[in-house]
Specification:
270 residues; alpha+beta; seven-stranded mixed sheet; globular; binds zinc ion
Length: 270
């Protein structure tokens, strides 16, 4: 039986004879249903016309995304940590070339995902690398469209994946919104992998925090302050966002602090 993927968000559903009646992730007010109607594909059909491209940003940190862009169009990262490589965030497209290339980097030890828009084909990724755990924040459990024993629904404010890689619960865009703090960079500067929990802006000097990005719905000042406080507790120089070109390569912590102050001021609650 095929496991259908939503073409708008890339979420894969449990195998079934027919596609589900709707995609709850796209029907949610944070997303949108394909204007030409809900549509579905499969991983095989996707792989027939798409491929993944890789880019190394620094030693031990590779980004990958799908060409031509599919669904939300985000990138994922392979991050070298003390327990082995961690896949940060996820993309729907997975093929033999991707598996071979990541195997060449040493395979994967774990997967961690910032929020439900990037859950995509996480179960396929886990199986391709030996049934490795997929760490998702438990506050977003209702958005899991394909349950599987590989899923680790963690609770609380932080989860140490490795001595040099910790998941931080930040909230915001989704109640379980998570970022990855990596301290394994060659220059020992901290790195924040922010998904779209802290969305790196096109100026590459600031971030923003929205409840919905496609529908442009803000968070409250209190929520932005809360995320700001959680990120201020971390030491980091660089911030890598969810999309190509969206990275802050120096003074990232100060950029986040400045952004939080400005947004709270604009929200009229300074
Ligand atoms: Zn969807
Ligand atoms: Zn999102």
């Amino acid at each position: 039986m095929p496991a259908f993927l939503c073409t708008t968000c890339g979420a894969q559903f449990a195998p079934a004879e027919a596609p589900p009646p709707a995609c709850p992730i796209c029907e949610d007010a944070r997303q949108y249903v394909n204007p030409s109607g809900q549509s579905w594909t499969t991983l095989d059909a996707l792989a027939a016309g798409h491929w993944n491209g890789f880019r190394r940003y620094e030693p031990g940190l590779y980004a990958l995304a799908t060409f031509p862009a599919f669904a939300i169009g985000q990138r994922a990262f392979v991050v070298r940590t003390a327990i082995g490589n961690v896949l940060w965030d996820c993309i729907a497209m997975l093929d033999d070339a991707t598996i071979d290339l990541i195997a060449g980097l040493g395979g994967l030890a774990a997967i961690a995902i910032s929020h439900p828009h990037y859950y995509t084909t996480m179960v396929e990724w886990s199986r391709a690398f030996g049934g490795i755990p997929v760490h998702l924040h438990a506050a977003d459990r209702q958005w899991v469209m394909r349950a599987d024993p590989c899923l680790d629904l963690w609770e609380g404010e932080r989860l140490e994946l490795a001595a040099d890689a910790t998941l931080i619960h930040a909230g915001g865009h989704f109640p379980g919104g998570t970022v990855l703090h990596w301290t394994g960079a060659a220059d020992r500067a901290g790195v924040l992998l922010s998904g779209d929990i802290a969305q790196v802006a096109p100026d590459r000097r600031s971030v923003s925090f929205l409840w919905s990005y496609p529908n442009m719905i803000p968070l409250s000042a209190a929520a932005v302050r809360g995320i700001g406080a959680r990120l201020a507790a971390l030491a980091f120089a660089r911030v890598y966002g969810a999309f190509w070109g969206r990275e802050i390569m120096a003074d990232g912590r100060e950029a986040v602090r400045r952004s939080v102050t400005r947004i709270v001021e604009k929200l009229g609650a300074a």
